[in-house]
Amino acid sequence: MSQGVNENKVYVVGHKNPDTDSICSAIAYAELKTKITGQMHVPRRAGQLNEETQYVLEHFGVKVPPLLSDLRIQVKDVELRKANGLKASESIKTAWAQMKNLNIKALPVTRGDKLEGLITVGDIARSYMDVYDSGILSRSRTQYRNIASTIDGTIITGNEHSYVLNGKVAIVASSRPLMSEFIEEDDLVILGDRTEAQQLAIDLDVGCMVVCGDAKIPDKILKQAKAKEIVLIISPHDTFTVARLINQSIPVRHFMTKDNLVTFRPKDYVDDVREVMARKKFRDFPVLDNRGNFQGFISRRRLLNCRKKQVILVDHNEESQAVDGVEQADVLEIIDHHRLSSIQTIGPVFFRNQPVGCTATIICQMYRENGIKVEPITAGLLCSAIISDTLMFRSPTCTPLDETTARELAEIATIDIESLAQAMFKAGSNLQGKTAEEICFLDFKQFSVNDTLFGVGQVNSMSADELREIKARVLPHMDRIRRNHRLDMIFFMLTNIITESSELLCVGSEAREKALSAFDLNSEPEEIHLKGVVSRKKQLVPAMVEALQQ
Fold first, then answer.
1. Which of 136, 171, 284, 423 has its CA 20 to 30 A from that of 260?
2. pLDDT tens, position by position, 386-417
3. Within this chain, do residues 503 and 357 fall inside the same structural domain, yes or no?
4. Structural domain includes residue 274
5. Are residues 150 and 202 in the same domain?
6. Is the distance from CB of 294 to CB of 288 less than 8 angstroms?
């Protein structure tokens, strides 16, 4: 039997260091796709939210999407082999019968759902091949009902739930004097239909009598056995067969592997699992949940049939900005408004890219195209995303379609755009308690040109004084941040929404020179002020890419 543990859902996720557009578009598009297809689409975030986005979600009473930090295939994406657990008290014969019936090589030994150990074909083989003395049943605390079941016997007297606690196993085939020499109290004796031998066993206070060949037992013997609480078992097999089979009644706990078990968890990544499997010779490995409950077995063969995570990317199409492990995922769609970049997919995907100021504008179009009504809360989120990405229509990336769409959404959500924008930007520039590195990466994107890896961060504010404070906090630490993240250059935009301009901070070899060249600034100003430059996507990044390519 097999069990698929991967849920049938599609993740909708934006880029790392998510902004308001990335989050709100993921939430809105997941809702749209669920309504269109009937399949569960769930929004996710690829990083920590900034203050502005947190304000927007709280304002509209929307939960923060769960974090999706890695799209690599996990154990939960693999179809596990399900197997019912054995109790530790079950016999190895029972274990063997189940393995044979299911054509498997290992079984879990559980208490409830908790894994106690594993019993394998190898363990059972060793139980047959190793030499055990006649005291093995008592040392392994074998239950009498196990013995009866193993030899196809019937318990006539005694407690079937009790255990062999003392004594040895002995075959009675000799005279009374000889029997008296080696049969002791509490022994388990295997005998035939000789009444004399049966009587002597009772007289010697044995713990259990196994009578072979379905021999008839006199009433006198039955009464005495019952009175002394001797377990009396009748088996249809002959003495040789009973003696051969009886060790198969030993409980699996005596042979199972219980120490240093190699187990995996549903959230473990398959790449890591393969490395562990390569160092071990086992065929099947148990998978446990966080409570130690057995979920199923995973094997090397089952790793070949992993189900990839299905994902839709919004507001980006660059691999460096995507969730880690995206190359292992099944990318179904990309909805974006940025330049075409480096992401690659295994198969063809639905790709929609429009030269507008915000991904939310595209998603709103898709609602209309599919005849789906935008609910007020969703409208509020989409409107907020457009306000954020276009700096309330001041950014050069803003198109007439963005502004028209935002005003239509504002009517649906019954919100005032100017008031919402002011509250959003105020929340976004409130950086109290954050470190310089946290501020730098609040809204940060990474790019690669030839062999140069650079990042661009941005903070927007309506207050020049606030921007000066942020500069004083961030600038002294930027080069250390660059080194820590192994970037060649970092550019940080301090954008004044009111004056529609940005001051550009630069660190890294030739970063300042490249910035001056990109914007054709021939002098050597102490500070780099870029009038009319407020868009990272449309103004700064294209200029820097061109400068780095020269």
1. 136
2. 999 998 998 888 999 999 999 999 999 999 99
3. no
4. no
5. yes
6. yes
